[in-house]
Amino acid sequence: MFHKEGYKIITVAFLICAVLSLTAHFLIENELVEKGVILIFLILLILILQFFRNPERNFELNPNEILSPVDGKVVVIEEVFEKEYFKDKRLQISVFMSPLNVHVTRYPVGGNVVFSKYHPGKFLVAWHPKSSEENERTTVVVKSKVFGDVLHRQIAGAVAKRIVNYAKEGQEVEQASDSGFIKFGSRVDIFLPLGTKINVSLNQKVKGGVSILAQ
């Protein structure tokens, strides 16, 4: 199963690989070289397919839990000053996605979208300290009945060149439903109220819509 954001890219990639493979078949006389070239095209196509995969998952929704918005590895757990929306101290959890992870972004909580904003910016590597403030990114805040305002921020990295954000202010959203997609990229930050019980540790691998970040 593939995410809708990948349909166009997958179709174009398939056609290009097919044309190049046929071209290699007719132009390359050495059979071993021909097979090697076609194998390279096939591997590239498989990489694109796996990037846009959207596996079915059994989501156990709970308003008393904050779910990970993406697949990846927890790289930051710290108290920070969030200056775009809250303008006060919050607990930040950051999840880094490698190119091999599923890149669907999901709502960590359900509720009403009270803020959604896109920011153009740079494409620093996702683990750069300033990527959260200087890279291309989107900021989404959902008001939960249990946690109040919960902010998650999609951040593009050095490879990512497009962020897709579905959140619209005033919209009612369900926990674990699609919030967006980061094409070929790379990190999501979540900002929680101080005192929230954190359920993950640094370097822990998490799954979007499944792993419980906090309670």
Give a short overview:
With 215 residues, this protein is of the alpha+beta class.
Account of the 3D structure:
- The chain has 215 residues and is of the alpha+beta class.
- The chain has 2 domains: 48 residues; 149 residues, Glucose Permease (Domain IIA) (Distorted Sandwich).
- It is built from 3 helices and 13 strands; from the N terminus they run H-H-E-E-E-E-E-H-E-E-E-E-E-E-E-E.
- The strands form 3 sheets. Strands 9-5-6-7-11-3-2-12 form an 8-stranded antiparallel β-sheet. A 3-stranded antiparallel β-sheet has the order 4-10-8, with no helix packed on it.
- The longest helix has 21 residues.
- The model has no long low-confidence stretch (mean pLDDT 87).
State the domain count.
Answer: 2
What CATH architecture of the largest domain do you see? Answer: Distorted Sandwich
Strand order within the widest sheet? 9-5-6-7-11-3-2-12
Total of helices: 3
Tell me the span between the first and last alpha carbons: 31 Å
**Quaternary assembly:** single chain
- What overall geometry do the principal axes of the alpha carbons give? elongated
What letter string, H or E per element, gives the SSE order?
HHEEEEEHEEEEEEEE
**Helical residues, percent:** 10-25%
Structural class: alpha+beta
Name a few traits of the molecule.
Glucose Permease (Domain IIA); 13 strands; single chain; 215 residues; 3 helices; alpha+beta; 2 domains; elongated
